[in-house]
Amino acid sequence: MLTHIxxxxxxxxxxxxxxxxxxxxxxxxxxxxxxxxxxxxxxxLARMTTAEKVAILHAQSKFSSPGVPxxxxxxxxxxxxxxxxxxxxxxxxxxxAGWTNDSCVAFPALTCLAATWNPETALxxxxxxxxxxxxxxxxxxxxxxxxxxxTPLNGRNFEYMGEDPYLASRMVVPYIKGVQENGVAACVKxxxxxxxxxxxxxxxxxxxxxxxxxxxxxxxxxxxxxxxAWTIMGxxxxxxxxxxxxxxxxxxxxxxxxxxFDGAVISDWGGTHDTAEAITNGLDMEFGSWTNGLSNGAxxxxxxxxxxxxxxxxxxxxxxxxxxxxxxxxxxxxxIFRTSMNRNRPYGSLCSDxxxxxxRQIGNDGIVLLKNDRKVLPLxxxxxxxxxxxxxxxxxxxxxxxxxxxxxxxxxxxPLDGIRAAASTCNATVDYARGYVGDVTGEYNGVVTGxxxxxxxxxxxxxxxxxxxxxxxxYVIFVGGLNKSAGQDCEDADREALGLPYGQDAVISALAKTxxxxxxxxxxxxxxxxxxxxxxxxIVQAWFLGSEGGNSVADVLFGKVNPSGKLPxxxxxxxxxxxxxxxxxNYLGTKRPDSDIWDAEYKEGVLVGYRWxxxxxxxxxxxxxxxLSYTTFAYGRPRVDRKKLLAGETLTITVPVxxxxxxxxxxxxxxxxxxxxxxxxxxxxxxxxxxxxxxxxGETREVSFTISPEDLAYFDAAAHQWVTHPGKYQAHxxxxxxxxxxxxxxxxx
Length: 749
Ligand code: BGC
Description:
The chain is of the alpha/beta class. Helices cover 24% and strands 21% of the residues. Helix 5 packs parallel to helix 7 and helix 14 (459-471) packs parallel to helix 15 (504-514). The chain binds beta-D-glucopyranose (BGC).
């Protein structure tokens, strides 16, 4: 055995030489997998030069950061996120690298996941996408997103989990666990208060603490404290006049202080603006900055990042504290040890049958049946049926577009493909009419769909063709909605209005007049206005469903799957009914004179989504939590184990639910709580529990919910603590925010 001593010279830059003695044949502590991670980090840190510590804090390419090559510590590869693994781009640019082995499975958008109200489905989602990331050599998935749905105009709502902090919390935790089981970090984004896209770099959110803690932080908190997220991404916008990628209150006080986050804070791409703030205000890793050099290709571009040479210079001249540097480097090393340096992580898999099956299952679980008069659905194919499909979204690829979540898929089943495949196995024929022309382009960042959707006919000609064909059909299925083009469901812009674009309302109304068996399938990640709601017997909310989208839609339409999704957001009848828009003419806020900054005040406070509709008694188009089934459910009388709840105790409510129809189905049983006489303004009720149960025809099952005093609390901003006041409360067992089956009063003393 070799016994001689080798000296490793550590670091050659800036006179920061250190040397560590290592005995050949001995495993250094940082490489010794039998040791705990913290001891290994201590050892690695002790061996690193200042320059090496700084180097791991910023990007070396569009999506990667270096490790410590001298010590054999690997770097980190990140990827979008959150619906599939983004295709490879060039080292320094957004353009495609042109690889032919970087196609993925697209999973349904996170709004669909939220609509499943099924934490097990979220675990399946996280596991599956984590495996794809792992196979593609990625260490961090830039997702999931849990910004609260505040306005239906937000172009990025489709990447988030709806309007309720409790629902988003319950769904984000298993997603993260599933991803991280693979030795891949989830990067929860965009922390925080990134609730619309326009002016996203210059919006300063003004919000009271109670609203912050009750509405906008809980899902992030759950992601950190329960999900154990290894990274979190700062948002582009500002809060308290500081960018959220280096925001002292949000990152130092709340995230790392109150919640004890031990992972790394990653900037959004180009979200870093200042070295001093980045150093002191909690940022750990900087990505996507567009500093001198990068735009014209100078080789030192990454050295110009705020957390690169400018930071090093401050350390050298003594204006930056080395303890802060060590904390950042420690967090990044922790990330590396948990991911790229974890030799025990699984290998993952890409485009596997299992992943396609998972994508289809998530879609099946999340599609929401909004309306089904005369039981138009499921399609009856006992005798020969002619089905007419109308609409651009029946044929348009939806996995390309939308911004950073755009994907290059191995395959995508369109609704028309899915319907045709299902029809071929039963007594049905399928015809198609375009109906309207929306956006015929099909390209994002160099990924092209290859579809030629051009159609030069006028709207009148397109409607005439659709109506003509509809007259001879047994069923008409209109597939429309939004798409992922700019100004629709797409990053970096918001929608202009609640209504459907491209004249779709006129097409739907014309079809409704022609054929009574009209089904509207709305593909979107946002609520849309439905002025024709009374004219159409059946409406299906289909979300962006990814690779297996068309199969999921067909599974539900043909009844292979009994729909069980519930809305994770309120569908308003009018935009003015939404709190934000009721309280201000311009949700973007007010532009400061002589500055680019827009102050956006969240005037509605905690009354977001159904909390506003319920409290103000405004009738929504479709309420939060709404979703029908092909079977029916009856709720029995709930029982409580006590009527008086004391501190330290819990109260259990049990309700029997019966499937009263003739086919198997799943119901999401919801529990809301009201504070009858609150000392502060409180929403009429708030979601505090839910359970998705599957029932055979005639079967009854009991669902139990536990309520603790903490579930009744509101955030007292002055005292900076959660407070439960004594008094009267009500628990509501419900099948949606407006469909309450039973109310149970109780007191807290
Ligand atoms: C988006 C992030 C994304 C990043 C990297 C940004 O523009 O806001 O969500 O992860 O780009 O693509």
